[in-house]
UniProtKB/TrEMBL annotation:
It comes from Geobacter sulfurreducens (strain ATCC 51573 / DSM 12127 / PCA). GO terms for biological process: polysaccharide biosynthetic process. This is dTDP-4-dehydro-6-deoxyglucose aminotransferase. Residues 1-25 are annotated as: Disordered. InterPro entries: DegT/StrS_aminotransferase, PyrdxlP-dep_Trfase, PyrdxlP-dep_Trfase_major, PyrdxlP-dep_Trfase_small.
């Protein structure tokens, strides 16, 4: 048993489980440390630390092979990747996005003075509801951003049809979806481009980083120019740009973690089903499901809490878990539309987004990943049961 755990034999009659060390959602996975250090030493010996070094080039090539796309462009982070991709596609005016996502999805547009138009979600999938999109298209609309939330693909085919019908650009925010598939095809090759996050909290990380994947060669070339100040060659700037480059040390981490990808996913898979088993039949608590016919990364254990059935609110449950050092998280509370500047720009948006409003009060995530032991999961499940049953209210 992990020495950081402090609990009994997981029975209903034992003392309330607690943990000496905090258990986090998204504590970073680290692959083979020796392999990483060897790459870092190689990098230091070469003294090539950034500017499209050999590790970045190798990572891009391996990502292209893994995702089955012609072009992968490594970036310093996914937010910059979204901003550059949006600009490279010539998006302007208004772009339709879901409000139930990380705020960077909206910020990447607003930063460029593009108005994010929030479209309500499908409460079953948690994704943007494609049935509501066409009514929101105006003469100012230039694109749609779909988000593959929790690694589950959004309505890719329908969004593609809508975008083609109305001549709109289509980007997929695939921050959660590395290693996942749709229709047997790896996420990465859909839409005009897809953007991945390799932030430290993602199951696959490059310390900090992102990636743009696209089969559009012309778009890829434009993104490569824009991420490096518009340089073509040593002293020839042919395009406006910024600094979106990934460093060599981040690429070294990515190459190392890529070698452990199957192990990370297997750990997530095991943890996910341990939670499913431990929480099965608990009133008011449902664990989101994954399509076993597709590839999944299982990096998120997502619960929906029905307060009426559970007898306790999601927020009260999170608070009680925090008191035991289980740092469960509310995602994506309270929704982008309730954050600044959007709540000031669109003060009545909550009335137009009832499904998002409801889901934002119900969703929570539990700790998983390689830093979480199965004994931890068993104890967390016991703890949740006791909170639901009213025997623990801290």
């Amino acid at each position: 048993m992990n020495p950081n755990a402090s609990f009994d034999n997981m029975t209903e009659s034992s003392a309330p489980p607690s943990f000496k060390e905090k258990l986090h959602v998204g504590r970073p996975n680290v692959g083979n440390r020796e392999a990483l250090l060897a790459r870092i030493n190689d990098m230091l010996d070469r003294r090539w630390l950034t500017n499209n070094g050999p590790f970045v080039q190798e990572l891009e090539q391996k990502m292209s092979e893994f995702l089955g796309v012609r072009n992968c462009i490594a970036m310093c982070n996914a937010t910059i990747a979204l901003e550059i991709t949006t600009r490279a596609l010539g998006m302007s005016g208004e772009v339709i996005v879901p409000p139930f996502t990380f705020v960077a999805t909206a910020h990447a547009l607003q930063w460029q003075e593009i108005t994010p138009v929030f479209c309500d979600i499908d409460p079953t999938t948690h994704h943007i509801d494609p049935k509501k999109i066409e009514s929101m298209i105006t003469p100012r609309t230039t694109g749609i951003v779909g988000v593959h939330l929790w690694g589950r693909p959004c309505a890719v085919n329908t969004l593609t049809e809508i975008a083609a019908k109305h001549k709109l650009k289509l980007i997929f925010d695939a921050a959660h979806a590395f290693g996942c598939s749709h229709g047997g095809r790896m996420i990465g090759g859909f839409g005009d481009a897809e953007v991945f996050s390799f932030h430290a909290t993602k199951f696959f990380n490059t310390f900090e980083g992102g990636l743009v994947a696209t089969d559009n060669d012309e778009l890829a070339q434009k993104i490569r120019l824009m991420k490096n100040f518009g340089f073509e060659g040593y002293d020839n700037v042919i395009y406006i740009g910024t600094n979106g480059k990934m460093t060599e040390i981040c690429a070294a981490m990515g190459l190392t973690n890529l070698e452990s990808l199957d192990e990370f996913i297997q750990t997530n898979h095991t943890n996910y089903y341990r939670y499913r088993q431990g929480l099965s039949g608990l009133p008011g608590v449902s664990v989101i499901e994954y399509n076993e016919a597709e590839r999944n990364n299982y990096q998120y254990v997502v619960l929906e809490i029905d307060e009426k059935m559970a007898g306790v609110s999601r927020d009260r449950l999170v608070e009680a878990l925090h008191a035991k050092n289980v740092i469960a998280r509310r995602y994506f509370y309270p929704g982008c539309h309730r954050m600044e500047p959007y709540r000031s720009y669109f003060p009545h948006s909550r009335l137009l987004l009832p499904k998002t409003e409801r889901l934002a009060r119900r969703v929570m995530l539990l700790p998983t990943g390689t830093a979480v032991e199965l004994e931890h999961i068993d104890a967390i499940c016991v703890l949740i049961k006791r909170i639901i049953n009213g025997s623990i209210l801290s």
